[in-house]
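Friendly challenge for the regulars: who can give me the structure tokens for this chain first? No prize, just bragging rights.
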Amino acid sequence: MKSQIITSLLFMAYCVLGAEEPTAQLTFKVTEESGKPIRQVPVNVHLFDSAKSEIGHPVYNVTNSLTDNDGIAVVRGSNLTREFSYGIWGVAGYYREGGVYYFDYSTNSQWQPWNPTINMVLRPVLNPTPMYARAVETRIPKPNEKFGFDLMAADWVAPLGKGKTADLFFQLSGYAESITNYDSTLTVSFANRLDGIRGFVPFKGSQFRSPREAYIDGYQPQLELRRVGKPGQMSSEWIEPSSIQTNYFFRIRTELDENGNIKSAFYGKIYGNFDFFGAATKGSYLTIPTYYLNPEPNSRNMEFDPKRNLFGRLPSLQEVRDP
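First reply, four minutes later:
Bragging rights claimed.
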């Protein structure tokens, strides 16, 4: 939205002053994760079309160039703003990849720096598997108590819901006097020894954002998130540990052998962070972000097949389309 507003303002200035759209040139280097160049794939760049656009209704054209034998593609075009969005999509056997490049300034009708090199890594489709995948919007009934949630049922455990196994426990503590005056902490904990959660750094720009396999170790037994709303402020403040992540792997339903080693466990991932409101006495809303749970014991494969969601057909707004 902010980008569209800026584009509209620039378009108004363009119409009034008759300004010239500066030209840019970008070089893209496209490789696989192994570093091998990928040839003959189109790199697409969105360019603002001033002739077709109207104030408040920007129109963009797509220009592209095919990579050569070294995986190099050079794209050139004119654009009203310094923001150039680019991507590779529709290539059989690979996940979509894209991003945005911002030029520093324009001079002599050229965006600078001239001809920057942008590295793009196309991740191949290797082993997509069925999973339980969805986001959940629900309510924590009351503060200062732990409530179990079944990820395979996407519901609270009985008697609050239809769940049978408590994979996660949620507890809200603190206070909530109003929607602008609260201080609350959400604690996410687990049922079994060696269950837990661990953050990961996503692959920037890729449709397939996570590592291919969940980590073997490093899982923490709980996660705490604190949120504060202060009178007179329109937005709340997140007070988070310095190591906070917004993408996670988790391990649940862990069974140990007689030596304390993992005999069986289920692995999954979460894109995004848990969202919640203050610890209200009448209950507080909770959003569990999109999670993926591999149903095969001990499999750490995190490559989800969107065509085989084990929750079945979800409403269109709840469908999980990314792996």
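The longest strand covers residues 129-140. Residues 129-318 form one domain. Your move, everyone else.
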